Amino acid sequence: MTAAGPLVQVQQLMLRGRRAEALASLKGIVEAAGASPDLLARAASLFGQMNAHPAAADCQRRLVRLLPGHPDVLRGLAAAETACGRLGEAERLLDAAIAADPAECDSWYNRAVLRRQTAARNHIAALRARLAHPSGRGIVPLAYALAKELEDLGEHGESFVWLKQGADARRAMLSYRVEGDVQAMADIAAVFSVEKLANTPAADNPERPIFIVGLPRTGTTLLERMLGMHSQVTALGELTELPLAVTRAAAGGDKGETIRRAGEADFAALGRDYLRAVATYEPARPVTTDKLPNNFLYIGLLYRGLPRARVIHLRRHPMDSAYAIYKTLFRMGYPYAYDLNDLARYYAAYARLMRHWRAAAPGYVVDLDYEALVQRPEATARDLYARLELDWQPACLEFHRHDAPVATASAAQVREPVHTGSVGLWRHHQAELEPFAAGLRAEGIDPETGEISQGRSDRA
């Protein structure tokens, strides 16, 4: 029998929230199947999806031994090494992957974001040469890579030219319509109304996990790394357990039908389902963190299903937030990131939903500003720890020494000490970002503060 069948079974276990069984099964398959490059590649991907990054790296190293010098294999191991914090080794592997196949363009972007480029050490000339004759999808990672390296060297004007070229090309590849997400967030607010949540009894679930939510690139990984340094906290990263639990409880029909069913779900059972899934990570410390940014969509469910959970909402200056999202080439998800008009529409819908949660779940969400976190890290962290009922431990400020794997777009940045270098970066591109600012103003939102105009409907 080939490994295809057992791997499908592993995926089914993952979807049912049975992570421990899925991991054990996958490890057994890898051990029994021997040296199969196809199986090792697929197993590495599945280990990564389950946040088992050391196991993914082991599979990738075996692949490199089987297929030495293969650019795809080198790139795969580089991704695993990046997640595990071995950035120097990741850069060496990406150098080798590019040397083996310069036309494999993803490696150029992955290498560019590993560190801050300098005048003495960068790849700008080579990137310009590659972009002189771009082909197909390759223009996207190459343009993003050049934009990033130019920004590192302070060439902000040319950087944005390449950034827009890459974003436009990426957007053209997607069939995404932002109206679907805007409508979904309006539907969520309607289903989980103030009245609905006020009249729904809270579940008797005493556990107190921490959820870190918000838009991507707003400091969620930074905050989790800080919290993960506490002796009582296990930082679990971006988990899919909550959306999977919602899917198991409510999936059916289109997105609107799923939202309606979620409003009728057994919130207490959903909370228990989530906690069972998280327990399979075998957290070494009693308090867990889950930093999947999009969990802001499920705050109504959490409010009643896990009433003692702590939800921290990371906020950032709207313009800095937009620029940080727009300049990131995401591995998956966030399709609104590649067009400033889409981004404005999505941001407005998100802002209205968060305003709704503050009214419908009073006192449940702690708003935390990214700027305060990086400009006054100790004072801000002390205040947050007190609100989370955690004793203050100065080690949280040494988060860059945390050796836990990170597989998000911030994997390289969080290995650095706290700094304010990303605050106000948008001002270099005020004119170019005007479509986003104008889009927010059209939605009744101040692009400087994120405040929604008085009287503006949540369903705007």
Automatic annotation (TrEMBL):
InterPro entries in the record: P-loop_NTPase, TPR-like_helical_dom_sf, TPST-like
Species the sequence originates in: Phenylobacterium montanum
Name of protein: Sulfotransferase
Lineage of the species this protein comes from: Bacteria, Pseudomonadati, Pseudomonadota, Alphaproteobacteria, Caulobacterales
Example of a GO MF term: protein-tyrosine sulfotransferase activity
Domain of life: Bacteria
Record keywords, A-Z: Transferase
SUPFAM superfamilies: P-loop containing nucleoside triphosphate hydrolases, TPR-like
